[in-house]
Amino acid sequence: MTASSSLTIRHANGADTKAIARLAALDSSRVPNGELLVAELDGRLVAAVSVDTGATIADPFEHTAAIVNSLRAQAHRRSRPAILPGQLGRALLGRA
Questions:
Q1: Strands across the sheet with 36-41, in order?
Q2: Which residues are paired to 49 by β-bridges?
Q3: pLDDT, tens only, 45-76
Q4: pTM (2 decimals)?
Q5: In this structure, which of 2, 15, 43, 66 has its CB flanked by the most CB atoms within 10 Å?
Q6: Is the C-alpha dihedral spanning 58, 41, 68, 16 positive or negative?
Q7: What domains are defined for the chain?
């Protein structure tokens, strides 16, 4: 990744099926189950993480450690259960 590289993190969609399968093959892994977040570097898929399981796949020919960490952070934020307004006080007090 260079200073002028463009990184995009987004939900995977049906158009990503082949690219995700290619990524899994490069990583010698299976496509993770569940909802996926993917990272595109300059328009090319380089990593994916399952929001449901945390399993990741990444292009072993790219420097993706920081990208995978970003994906995991995004997936973690999306996987936390929502706090209903009536539970906000208990959540702030650690009693949710």
A1: 7-11, 36-41, 44-50, 56-58
A2: 37, 56
A3: 999 999 999 999 999 999 999 999 999 998 88
A4: 0.76
A5: 66
A6: negative
A7: 7-92 (3.40.630)
